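Re: that chain you flagged

S.,

Sorry for the slow reply, it's been a week of failed gels. I finally had a moment to sit down with the sequence you sent. For the record, here it is as I used it:
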Amino acid sequence: MATSANRFVHRTNVIDRLGRTVVYAGELLRHPVYTRFLHWMVGIFFFLALLSGFGIYLPWIFRFFTPLFGGGATTRFLHPWFGVGFVIFFGLQALNWLGVMRWTPADSRWMKHIKEYVTRSDSVEAPETGFFNAGQKMQFWEIVCGCIAYVITGVIMWFPEIFGRILVAISYVVHDMSALIMLFGIFFHVYLSTFGEPGTTQAMTRGTVSEAWAWTHHPAWYHEITGRDPQQALKQAEAEMAARERAND
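Prediction finished late last night. Pasting the structure tokens below so you have them in one place:
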């Protein structure tokens, strides 16, 4: 029987024929073309909505953003459409990732050791960590909730004459708070995918990761994909590295 991760990887084969993912020796397929396309579209529309939103709601600080979109009036016109694009593409990604984002007992156990993860006192993830860890799943569901808030408050603000002044005022507060919470999570995501966990960016550019990255950050997924024990793979890599160091001495 196909596992949830395998079903996730093979679900978008038709669309993936539009692109190509080359997996070299020592690498594993992490994200197919369709997933990477959605990821970058989500990112592009998020930052377009963010920058245009800053220009609209805080013009005394971020007025230099509005000329990028053709001026104040054009920025106000484009901002909700950027938001619509963000919600649509993330909605497609949510459907794409629904199976691997389900919360499990292993995720609850992971949360008990979140301090060690944040401080990086242990560079190797817990053996139960699958395709995504609990922190990544939490961010995913936070964005799901944020998108729901954006849709509801966005519609109210888009048609103020229908909903009235009080609902519009409340919507501004909820909309802005949701954006700030999501922005914090996105910055943390960017940090982890670059400096925090080197090699992660490759997963969303080329679609592959090294086996060492896989057994370090997602050992259960590594075992599921390769059938090999991640701890044994780690020990073998350490032994090979030590042998090379001795040979160079």
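What I noticed first: The chain is about 70% helix and 0% strand.

Talk soon,
D.
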